[in-house]
């Protein structure tokens, strides 16, 4: 097991966004798998655009279901997960993209276990794995291994932040509801917070808290923050964004992947897919691709007839698919890939919304979200 043990008895905190409390990890570990397709459509080709972590996981799970993923990748497997080796220093890598992962990413840790990768604690500020944390603020330098080593003002600010979260957002109750994967309890706690804080910035939340009344304390908090460090660049953002991070433990107890993060997408690509249907046991996603490599970049997506989308690639190839899974950032559909507008969910959703209810002076952001 690479997953650290839960600090408290019961299910671990999971990265279940309170707005969409869908327990991916439970679903993934279901004995029936995450889904199945009828036998007569097994072997069907499905295009997957992008071979970052999202695309390699999609391809891996499609193969497990007995479908045939056809992956298009513009650059390299891994995308924004990219580990660069140093010549002459085997085992040492520089992480150029994602490098630290919270244990609450239980689905991610499930895949790490499945492909046999180990994790170790990441040396965040004041983390137990960090030999020394140096804080240099306004010309004063302090060192410490743990919070208790720091001057009283730092400890007061830490206590103030914790109290602000409890009083202003019932954070422990919310985290317990998320850990219990209890959508009703999550909604009962989260909905009032959305109504209360919909137009509240992070800074306003701190100012309004009786626990962070002093400007100097808020300034220190902005510089040093919590988890990975200072948060003052987020002061102007909605406090709901920060509460989403805190409630899901996204900035806590981070771990690094031994040997480099890019091994995860690389192994999902090249290792045999366990429990594979339709294909021979031992088949990998790479085995389903000529030469074991993805196709080149997709440059256009056209809906040619109902139930058919043609993908054009940068090598001049074109192929029709019953389904295309686009995992690259969505703005590429608007800017880089020539794409029928109707295939872009965001535009389609906005148009559908506008058709249903033309923008009126009384229209608010909250209304749009409820839609
Ligand atoms: C510097 C940096 C540090 C980060 N640190 C962390 C961290 O510590 N922890 C963490 O959890 N997250 C971190 N992230 C975020 C994390 O890396 C991403 O959320 C994650 O890797 C996104 O994966 P993805 O597969 O969804 O997208 P991507 O990795 O962006 O994959 C999309 C893929 O699509 C490909 N593509 C684009 N256009 C086309 C096309 N036309 N045809 C075919 N393929 C195409 C791209 O080349 C790319 O490989 C960091 C990101 C960056 C940039």
Fold topology:
Elements: H1 24-28, E1 45-49, H2 53-65, E2 68-72, E3 83-86, E4 89-95, H3 106-115, E5 119-121, E6 133-137, E7 140-144, H4 152-169, H5 171-179, H6 183-197, H7 202-208, H8 215-224, H9 239-247, E8 255-257, H10 263-270, E9 298-305, E10 308-313, E11 318-321, E12 324-326, H11 331-335, E13 338-339, H12 345-356, H13 365-370
Helix pairs in contact: 2-10, 4-8, 5-6, 7-9
The chain binds flavin-adenine dinucleotide.
How do you describe this structure in short?
It is built from 13 helices and 13 strands. The chain is α/β, with parallel strands linked by helices and 371 residues long.
Can you give a write-up of this model?
By secondary structure, the protein is an alpha/beta fold. Among the domains are: 35-81 and 262-339, FAD/NAD(P)-binding domain, CATH 3.50.50.60; 135-250, Guanine Nucleotide Dissociation Inhibitor, domain 1, CATH 1.10.405.40. It has helices at 24-28, 53-65, 106-115, 152-169, 171-179, 183-197, 202-208, 215-224, 239-247, 263-270, 331-335, 345-356, 365-370; strands at residues 45-49, 68-72, 83-86, 89-95, 119-121, 133-137, 140-144, 255-257, 298-305, 308-313, 318-321, 324-326, 338-339. Strand 1 (45-49), helix 2 and strand 2 form a beta-alpha-beta unit. Helix 7 packs across helix 9 (239-247). The two termini are 42 Å apart. The structure holds flavin-adenine dinucleotide. Flavin-adenine dinucleotide binds at residues 49-55, 72-75, 79-81, 97-101, 297-298, 327-329, 332, 336-337. Residues 49-55, 72-75, 79-81, 97-101, 297-298, 327-329, 332, 336-337 line the site of flavin-adenine dinucleotide (FAD).
